[in-house]
Design a protein that fits this description.
345 residues, single chain, TIM Barrel, globular
Length: 345
């Protein structure tokens, strides 16, 4: 590795929510992998150890990103381009430093600059598990280094939020963390135990409510179908009950799919877990939507929401903003009924 390439060295993790990719967020790695990593449906991070990154290491990554941004902007200015960055600047820099072609973070940062540099996502699975002082310091350093950033987002576990004081959460929010993506998966106690989520319906409610009260924008993710044929009805009703208690800003559907090699996949092979058919998932989804009494935006912004309408297109909009409840609740229910006609009841 050349000296110049070392100047641009920073880590970029693999995972981020679709909405953070769609908004071309800057991916900044505060931790490595997942501190829980017991969920039976999940195949992410299974061969990786969780690590807290030291504050100085995070700052070094931010500094390396800042140097790369500076050099790309300088080259663009030399090319008399009035925009922040142009393609020729990236090509010139890659010719000077061929190793950038293999730098995982280079295209991500380049795209972030092209989009206006407005959003950032903290990797990996639960940045809120960091000690408060280094987390606050890292957030402030990120904001100071890149003042163009308007929104900073992170994954977080409900249980982690529930265990933190309201004062601590408010301090983290004031330091510059705006939005949290929470993996609810289910609001049913039996389902949560089956998937080894390490959370209860009560901890989900407490964590979500405390996050909102602290000023965070909250996205809750749930998994239609994760209860299987045996638990689908209670999964649907109790998930809606928990979401009603939280009333998050966003509710995002991530339909359950068996992930080969996961414990739940093996359970299905042994016929101890029976997955729902597409039409059965829609029936469950209808019950969840019927039971929801929220003022949230309900989103189907993931390829897993694959159900088709009568024209052969996607049943739901994959917009990151979704459908505003309760105003568009009847529209969503009507779409589900159309989907049931297409997929068969």
């Amino acid at each position: 590795m050349t000296k110049n390439h070392q100047t641009y060295a920073f880590e970029t993790g693999v995972y981020r929510p679709p909405s953070e990719g769609g908004s071309d967020s800057l991916l900044v790695r505060f931790t490595r992998n997942c501190p829980w990593n017991h969920c039976t449906f999940c195949g992410m991070y299974k061969h990786e150890k969780f690590e807290l990154r030291p504050l100085e290491e995070i700052k070094q990554d931010i500094d390396a990103m800042a140097r790369l941004v500076h050099d790309l902007k300088s080259l663009s200015e030399k090319n008399a381009n009035n925009r922040n960055i142009d393609r020729n600047a990236a090509v010139i820099l890659m010719r000077r430093i061929p190793e950038l072609e293999y730098h995982q973070g280079f295209p991500m940062l380049y795209q972030w600059m092209l989009s206006g540099g407005k959003t950032a996502f903290l990797q990996d699975a639960n940045s809120l598990i960091m000690k408060t002082e280094p987390l606050v310091a890292a957030l402030k350093y990120l904001r100071e280094t890149f003042p163009s950033i308007k929104r900073v987002t992170s994954y977080a576990r409900s249980k982690t939020l529930a265990q933190k004081s309201s004062e601590t959460l408010h301090r983290i929010q004031k330091a510059g963390l705006n939005r949290l993506h929470l993996g609810l998966e289910s609001g049913d106690e039996a389902v949560l135990k089956m998937i080894k989520k390490g959370a209860t319906p009560e901890s989900h409610i407490t964590g979500g409510q405390k996050a909102i009260q602290a000023g965070f924008q909250v996205s809750e993710y749930w998994m239609p179908g994760v209860g299987g044929k045996d638990l689908w009805k209670r999964h649907a009703i109790n998930t809606a009950r928990v979401l009603n208690e939280i009333n998050p800003h966003y509710i995002r559907s991530r339909p359950f799919r068996l992930w080969p090699g996961t414990p739940l996949s093996q359970t299905a092979i042994e016929n101890m877990f029976k997955p729902l058919s597409p039409s059965e998932q829609l029936q469950e989804l209808r019950l969840t939507m019927e039971t929801l009494e929220v003022s949230s935006k309900v989103c189907f912004d993931h390829a897993g929401n694959y159900w088709k309408n009568r024209r052969g297109g996607y049943l739901f909009s994959h917009s990151y903003d979704g459908y505003q409840f309760p105003e568009e609740k009847e529209q969503v229910l009507a779409l589900i009924d159309e989907g049931l006609q297409c997929h068969g009841r």
